[in-house]
């Protein structure tokens, strides 16, 4: 019995000897340490590749190009002005030529129908001098010029022609001829000063232009086509 007690005392002594130093287990404070999860490293943002650095412009080259551009534009403008003026000059020359055809035809008709007893020779000669071609040939045949003067004298009257209108019909640039329609009214006055009823005439005058630009009456036709 005594031996058993001594064994129990020995066990208790060994248990006390194996206890760790410090406060008892019930009084120990537990400290919880929370370990933070590692944060992911931010990925680098992909930036667009920057353009290569611009080269400094060549100021002399830029200025040269600008000057050449101004010269070209100025030259083109000058050419345009010259062309426009040439076209205007050509148009005006054409209009002037057409008007000369009309004026020549109208004057021929006035010379043909206008005379007085005192100016018959001058009037007929003026009319003949303004003719050419077939008309001139007709007047030169069979003493027709003198016969026309005698006819005017026999009327014992004077005649006056007034142009009502004249218009260019067409131009033949190959033959340098133009057809002009002329409307005229002729009034005859006898020796006593009495005016006879005026008579209208419509004529187609063919006007010819020679190499020197001189225009004459080439032929006379009625609009209906008769001579």
Question: What coarse outline follows from CA principal-axis ratios?
Answer: rod-shaped
Instruction: Name the helicity range.
Output: 40-55%
Beta fraction: 15-25%
Which fold does the CATH topology of the domain at 86-221 refer to? Answer: Nuclear Transport Factor 2, Chain: A
Low-confidence stretches: none
- CATH C-level category of the domain at 86-221: Alpha Beta
> What is the average per-residue confidence, as pLDDT, rounded to a whole number?
80
Question: For the largest beta sheet, what order do the strands appear in spatially?
Answer: 1-2-3-4
**Structural class by sheet pairing and helices:** alpha+beta
Describe the structure.
With 227 residues, the protein is of the alpha+beta class. The chain has five helices and four strands, in the order αααααββββ. Strands 1-2-3-4 form a four-stranded antiparallel beta sheet. α2 (59-113) packs across α3. The chain is rod-shaped. The N and C termini lie far apart (186 Å).
């Amino acid at each position: 019995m005594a031996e058993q007690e001594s064994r129990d005392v020995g066990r208790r002594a060994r248990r006390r000897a194996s206890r760790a130093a410090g406060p008892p287990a019930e009084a120990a404070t537990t400290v919880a340490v929370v370990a933070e999860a590692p944060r992911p490293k931010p990925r680098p943002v992909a930036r667009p590749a920057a353009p290569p650095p611009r080269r400094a412009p060549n100021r002399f080259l830029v200025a040269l190009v600008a000057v050449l551009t101004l010269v070209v534009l100025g030259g083109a403008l000058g050419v345009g002005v010259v062309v426009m003026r040439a076209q205007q000059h050509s148009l005006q020359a054409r209009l002037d030529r057409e008007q000369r055809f009309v004026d020549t035809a109208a004057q021929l008709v006035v010379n043909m129908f206008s005379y007085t007893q005192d100016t018959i020779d001058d009037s007929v000669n003026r009319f003949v001098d303004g003719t050419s071609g077939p008309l001139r040939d007709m007047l030169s045949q069979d003493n027709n010029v003198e016969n026309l003067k005698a006819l005017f004298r026999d009327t014992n009257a004077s005649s006056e022609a007034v142009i009502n209108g004249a218009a260019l019909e067409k131009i033949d640039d190959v033959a340098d001829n133009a057809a002009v329609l002329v409307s005229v009214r002729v009034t005859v006055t006898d020796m006593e000063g009495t005016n006879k009823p005026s008579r209208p005439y419509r004529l187609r005058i063919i006007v010819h232009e020679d190499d020197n630009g001189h225009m004459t009456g080439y032929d006379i036709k009625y609009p209906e086509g008769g001579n």
